[in-house]
Write a structure and sequence with these properties.
By secondary structure, the chain is of the alpha+beta class. It has a single domain, classed as Invasion associated locus B (IalB) protein (Immunoglobulin-like, Sandwich), CATH 2.60.40.1880. Helix content is 20%, strand content 38%. The chain is built from four helices and eleven strands; from the N terminus they run ααβββββββββαββα. The protein starts with 16 loop residues before the first helix and ends with a helix.
């Protein structure tokens, strides 16, 4: 059973955003020594599998387990944003009833009073931002967006920075189906 996500006003930034940012980036290199020695059950992210441009992780702190698929943006514009990376997550948090929640951490603030876009082939999805975090405006579209991600080859996120500049992040979707399944299975 898929829980309907809370409206944006009730959503909070990713519960493990700091954990994701610190450990996931360190683990993004396949065969990373950190990934191979991360102890389970200690709140550290454990690399489960890599496929294409995607990786599956799990982390457990007490009874709370989170499993997620992760990819980083392959390209970003404008050029002055290239020193920070955009991250795309598809998260499962069983204790919260969350399954395959799509979210992004842009690592810069976006305008909150405008709509942003996710573009996958001919499919377009409206996104909303709170600080550096981005979600679908209509959480009921997560299933449709996940299907489009699985069938597509590339994702483009178009947004407007807090300063009013247009931004674009591009993600490869190579490996997404396998990795999303691995993250789902790890949190069953």
């Amino acid at each position: 059973m898929i829980r309907k996500p809370a409206p944006l006003s009730a959503r909070r930034p990713l519960t493990a955003a700091a954990l994701f940012s610190l450990t996931a980036l360190a683990l993004l290199a396949p065969g990373s020594a950190m990934a191979q020695r991360a102890p389970s059950g200690q709140g550290q992210a454990l690399l489960l599998e890599t496929a294409g441009k995607w990786q599956a992780f799990s982390s457990q702190q007490g009874r709370s387990k989170i499993c997620y698929a992760l990819s980083k943006a392959e390209s970003r514009s404008p050029a002055n944003l290239k020193d920070v990376e955009g991250l795309l997550f598809i998260s499962n948090r069983p204790t919260e009833g969350v399954r395959n929640e799509i979210s992004l951490v842009m690592n810069f603030d976006l305008k909150e009073d405008v709509e942003h876009q996710a573009i996958i082939g001919s499919e377009r999805f409206v996104l909303v931002a709170k600080g550096q975090n981005v979600w679908l405006k209509n959480p009921a579209e997560e299933g449709r967006m996940l299907d489009a991600l699985r069938k597509g080859s590339a994702l483009e996120i178009k947004g407007t920075s807090k300063r009013g500049n247009p931004t674009s992040d591009k993600y490869s979707l190579a490996g997404i189906s396998q990795i999303v399944k691995r993250a789902e299975d790890a949190c069953k």
